[in-house]
Here is the input.
Amino acid sequence: MLSGKGVAHPAPIRPPWTDERRIAESCTRCDACVHVCPEGVLTHGQGGFPIFDPALGSGACTFCGVCAAACDEGVFDLTRTPPWTIAPTIETTACLAHAGIHCSSCKDVCDENAVGMVLRIGGPPVPEILSEKCTGCGACVGVCPGGAIKLCAEEPMEGAA
Here is the structure.
């Protein structure tokens, strides 16, 4: 800390159908997208720009498109498929199942069935993210009693189509 080197922070997760470039070039920080989000998972990030935070509201993005419809500045591009590329990770040292405690909260809440449970000898099954099914909605993050699941943007969406 006293060495003068900053602590690396993960890149903020922007709302679906947008990216850092679109936010920087077009977002006026009017908060329209934040105010209309029915799930309550959008908030202000650094500099007042919108970010997705699965610790808020319902904890999951339903990809309803209300945030994009509320924006008059061209920040959102609803033609992008998928709407974003989010990679959840499981920190095994914080995961209750990895510690030998029966837990399947992440699997139970996942509407996409993107969390599998891997059987193992001598302990309860442990969660595994099935990336080909995961939408990055964030539902698994808020329900994890150990706080073991984190989301991060895999890559900018600039070239997505």
In short: The chain is about 15% helix and 20% strand. Residues 86-153 form a domain with the Alpha-Beta Plaits fold (CATH 3.30.70.20). The longest strand covers residues 123-129. The CA atoms of residues 1 and 7 lie 8 Å apart.
